[in-house]
Amino acid sequence: MPPTFKKPLDYDPGLAQQTLQKSYQNSDAAVEARKRTLLAELGLADEEYELDDEEEEELGEGEEGPGEGDENDEEPILTRGHKHTNGTASKAALPSYGYRDLFGKEMEGRRRQMIEVKGYDQYLQDLLNRSGEQLQALRSEKGLMYPGNVEVIPELQHELRKLQEENRNLRNSGARSTDGEASSRGSSELAQQVSSLQQQLAVRDARLREAEAEAARLKARLAQAADGPSPRGAAAAAPLEELRAVEALLAESQAALQAKERELTALRASKAAASAGGAADAVKELTRQRDDAVQAQELLQQQLIHARNDLSTAEANFRAQQAAMAAATESEQAKALQQQMWALTEQHSKKVEELEAELKQKQVMIQQLQATKSDALQAMKEMKGRMAAVKSDAAAAYKTQLMAIQAKLDEIHALREGVLEELVNFQSEIFSEKTITQMSRLVRDKEISRVRSAQSDLRTKLAEMDQALRDARDETETVRQQSEQVAKIRELEAQGQIMHFREKWRTEFDKRRKLHNVVLELKGNIRVLCRVRPMLDKERGGLDAAAAAASMPVRCPTEETVRVAAVDNKAEKEFEFDRVLSPEEGQDKLYDEVAALVVSVLDGYNVAIMAYGQTGSGKTFTMEGPEGNPGVNLRALGDLFRLAEERAAEYAFSFSASVLEIYNEQIYDLLMNGAQDGDKLDVKQGPDGMYVPGLKLEEVKDMGEVTAMIGRGKANRSTYATNMNEHSSRSHLVLSVYITAVSKQNGTTLKGKLHLIDLAGSERLSRTGAQGDRLKEAQAINKSLSALGDVIQALQQRNAHIPYRNSKLTRLLEDSLGGNSKCVMIVNVSPAAENVSETKCSLEFASRARKVELGKARVNVVSADGGNGNGVSPSPSRGPASGRATPSSEGSMSRVASREQMTTSTGRRTPGPSGLSR
Ligand SMILES: Nc1ncnc2c1ncn2[C@@H]1O[C@H](COP(=O)(O)OP(=O)(O)OP(=O)(O)O)[C@@H](O)[C@H]1O
């Protein structure tokens, strides 16, 4: 078990030094105390050590023996003392043994008495024995059982006793010599003494060596102690010094012993001299030697006392050193324990920090919980407040009712009082006063019971009202839930109905589309629209718009007829078309008439919309339109993109387009930059119908791309045309749109084609008066338009041969004027009087075209496996592969017949000329 500490201590050299010093002092004090005890036992108190001057002098005077002279003061003390052993010595004659400085005069006096009683030797022996015992007791008491010290001192004591024995022997031999014994016998005794002394010397030598060894052992132990930490070494320094002092003393003892040895050598010499010389001299010499030996013995005794004291001091110091070492060890242990405690303290500190952190978290949680709790309390408070308000409202209502009841009761009471009063008055007249009192009590009790009953009824009614209110609330909740369920059901039903209507709408839409196509077919595949443009400013002749309109020779009496006033002795003439658009009708109205055909393109039909008319009649206005008021081209394309987007769930559409110009019977690609050789582009027939090899087709995805493409085409056209206005009048501009629609359900592909054609001016050659290049241009225009007229006539007459190849224009439109296509011709006319003749020609040309029966159109469809799916459409009136005219079917004829009948019935359709050429 390690010692417990109140608190850890660091090693403090100062404290250790103080502790050591204290232990020294304690040891010194203990030795001093023991010494005093010893002296007390001997009858020598401390105060007795001091001698006053008087006694000193007295003793000094007493020492002067008679006949000895001054020189006796210097005699060996034992020489004089020995004289008194014979019982003749007085106190004044006692020798001074040189202890005066140690024991004092009184002690010296007592000592002398004891010496006189016991004899010197006995006294000395007693003193030594007692000192040894005291020392041993002191050692035992202090626990200083160090072998070296314990052994050395008894040995020294033993040595001392030996010396005393030797002295005694010497004295005895001296006494015998003094008594005059025979010198021969003394000689032999001396020889024995010498031998004995030699043996003693040998023994003392051995003891001295042992003492030296012990000193070395002590020295080693001290050095070992000094090898420790410096404070411990510092603590051991003092005992080391002490040991050195002891060593010095031992060295002195050794020196004394050596002196003794020398004395013995001298004794041997004296022995030899005694053997050789006279006995008296020998005795004298021996006496002198004996005195010297006694003196040496005293010296040794003194040294022994010093050594003993020094040893005691060394022991005390060593003990203190041990205590200091123990203290240092304890300090180290304390230090280790302190470190352990620090480690434990750190662990505890960490644990405390963790616990503190946990505590903080708990505190935060507690704060949050408290906040939540306070919120809940606040909410409860608010709820309580609301409940209290509700209660107070209810209480107020109840109170109001009670007050009303109370008021009623008061009224009743007042009434009752009145009645009672009257009754009393009345009764007083009839009954005695006693009877009246009894009656009034009865009436009052009855009234009270009636009021109580009324109160009870009211309470019951209130309870019933509350119950009714609760029932009403429950019913309201039930109704609300039911209504929610009904609303959900209706919503679901509505969604179902929406789905149903959507499906129905889709079905109806398909039906409508089919019917639309049927209507178109019934109407005829070439529809002819007539558009009369407004009067231009230059054509008004100074008239305002209204007056100019009133003077116009071209009128539109109905939506299907146009009337041309009589000009040049020619009668007024009226023409009928599928639709006639007056000057007031805008682009949107016109587009409404062709929009249905545009839809047909997405269904896989070939559609051609062409604007016909003399120069300046409004063809470009109709097809292109001015900026901000687009014509057929942009509106048709816008519709196509819009419808394609609507049908995106069913079909995947792709659009491409080309822009070409036919000028002087040559084809120019307006999407190609730079000069072109018009002869190089020709019209061919491919698997998908007519096409122009080498013509650039551009994919377009939206109106932005279309607009940009048309803009480039126009720009290219203007670069090579010297006079744009004149050039545009003498060339055909064809914008073609190719649409592919792949069904997402069965993979079939529909391919539609839309030609939007702004034809060249149709004025007659004779009217132009052109010559040279102009004549050539006019002839070319005439040729292509004549070819168009021939084709229309051949179609109308159902000829076996349709002359498509007579011009690039008709060749290009072969599959758009054929059996599987739909065609709209918009004849644009000028309302101006100066253009009446040309207007008539244009209207007559369009009237003939209107009579052309193209037959039932067919869808360009390719099945998913790559086969031609044209068979899905109704039986064609012409062969699909050749595109050549075939005899009309009965159905077609019947439609024509019906149209003829319609015309006849109305009397407005007039048969046109048989030829179409101008
Ligand atoms: N419906 C109309 N409403 C208003 N102005 C029109 C209409 N039609 C044509 N115009 C105007 O008449 C003029 C001639 O029209 P436009 O250039 O379209 O004739 P055109 O037949 O294309 O001539 P060309 O054969 O030379 O190209 C233009 O100024 C045009 O703005």
TrEMBL record:
PROSITE patterns for the chain: KINESIN_MOTOR_1 (PS00411), KINESIN_MOTOR_2 (PS50067)
Keywords: ATP-binding, Coiled coil, Microtubule, Motor protein, Nucleotide-binding
Residue spans crossing the bilayer: none
GO terms, molecular function: ATP binding; ATP hydrolysis activity; microtubule binding; microtubule motor activity
Keyword Coiled coil assigned: yes
PANTHER family, alphabetized: KINESIN-LIKE PROTEIN KLP-3
Protein name per Swiss-Prot or TrEMBL: Kinesin-like protein
Species of provenance: Chlamydomonas reinhardtii
Source organism phylogeny: Eukaryota, Viridiplantae, Chlorophyta, core chlorophytes, Chlorophyceae
